[in-house]
Structures are given as C-alpha cells and as structure tokens.
Design goal:
The structure is a single chain. The chain has 3 helices and no strands. Helices cover about 75% and strands about 0% of the residues. The termini are far apart. It has one domain (about 5-90): Helix Hairpins (Orthogonal Bundle), CATH 1.10.287. The protein is an all-alpha fold.
C-alpha cells in the first residue's frame, strides 16, 4: 500500500470510529428517554447495529478476520432478540403508553 493509501485508510477508520461513538451515545440517550417500549426496542436494535460497525472497523484496523465472524454472529443474535421483543409487545396487547386513554372520557362526549 502506498503512503497516501495508508494515511487515507487510517483517517477513514478514525472518522468511522468517531461517528460510531456519536451515534452510540445518541442511541443510548434514546434508550433512556424512551418514551414508549417500541422506541426502546428499536433503539436496542440500533445499538446492536452500531456495535457490529465497531467490530467491523476494529477488524479492519487490526487485520484479524475473526472479528468479522463475531460481527455476523452478533447480527444473528440481535435479530433474534428483536423478534423476541416484538413478540413480547404483541402478547401485551397494546403498544403505547396510552393506558389511561380508555378510562378518560373524550371531550364533547355526553
């Protein structure tokens, strides 16, 4: 690899790590703030995708191809976890935090 190619690859890896770090922090913020359970589940799925990106970038930086296998396995586990969470929501019977919506009368109703 030429000198320019090595410098370009190093800079691209650093930029990718910075962007992944920022997106990780923003996604953790969404997990904490919610506001609904589906938002949190979607955020957890996004965290899995971001971690897969971290593993891929670190695998490229280090040159170990084993990291790519770990990222693929994590993707499969993350998918199964998302499906399990979706089934959990379906079993609950409602999606939002509007538990009190049925109990309160609507305006204008007699």
């Amino acid at each position: 690899m030429t000198e320019f190619g090595a410098v370009f690859l190093d800079r691209a890896e650093l930029i990718a790590l910075y962007l992944l770090s920022a997106s990780f922090l923003l996604t953790v913020l969404r997990v904490i703030l919610g506001p609904t359970l589906p938002d949190r589940i979607l955020s957890l799925d996004m965290l899995v995708s971001i971690v897969i990106g971290f593993i891929a970038v670190i695998g490229i930086r280090s040159g170990f191809t084993l990291y790519i296998d770990i990222a693929i396995a994590l993707g499969l586990v993350g998918f199964l976890a998302t499906v399990a969470f979706a089934r959990f929501i379906m079993m609950r019977g409602h999606v939002g935090d509007d538990d009190n919506a049925e109990e309160q009368p609507q305006e204008g109703a007699s």
